Amino acid sequence: MIEVQALAKRFGEVHAVRDVGFLAPDGQVTGLLGPNGAGKTTAMRMISGLLRPDVGSVTIEGVDVHADPFAARRLIGVLPDARGLYPRLTAREHLVYFGRLHSVDPNVMGERIARICNSLDMKGIIDRRVAGFSQGERMKVALARALIHDPPCILLDEPTNGLDVMSTRAVREMVRGLRSEGRCVIFSSHIMQEVAALCDRIVVIVGGRVIQMGSADELMAVTETASLEDAFVACILADQAMAGAA
User: How far apart are CA 42 and CA 21, in angstroms?
Assistant: First the structure.
């Protein structure tokens, strides 16, 4: 479980995140939905411990991310918006390298790589260098890297960005598999179809603030709309109206 409380982050005069808080339970996919520039990636970086918030806190399985960052990082696997792969390494070498960074027992490393390779259908690329990989293949390596230490919590930032239809379908199946294993998954996206198809609970972020949260059905019910897209637009318009009235 991940608990996020009142996060805020400012870069100079820019308020990237103003007030983001939510609870992401185990065995569910929690979606962060918002337009580009809403603050989703900055929030994800604070949740993962890459950025320290100006205000607020994050706990992962009861561990405070910023008070004990090393313990917290053992509990999460992160698929960042920038994949950050090493072109001269093979996919297997990536997994071994990051497994060692996470102190994975050498006696279980091979079995774990084989299991991940099988679940992500990486047999054809596992011993190839990453240079020249397609977007979908690079995504698989990055996701495998995030899973090599078998974390209970997974952070996925725009995982289908730039992928073709078949790779996008593969990502969806992988996310569903992570949920069925009882893991806590946070899935950031601005694509309505992805959020509607995958997320049990949706956190709507606009202008660095959470303006609404709930399941897709709950968001549609509260806005009296028939689709998640219409509900999202209605949430934004209602927030703008409240801001104007204030």
Answer: 13
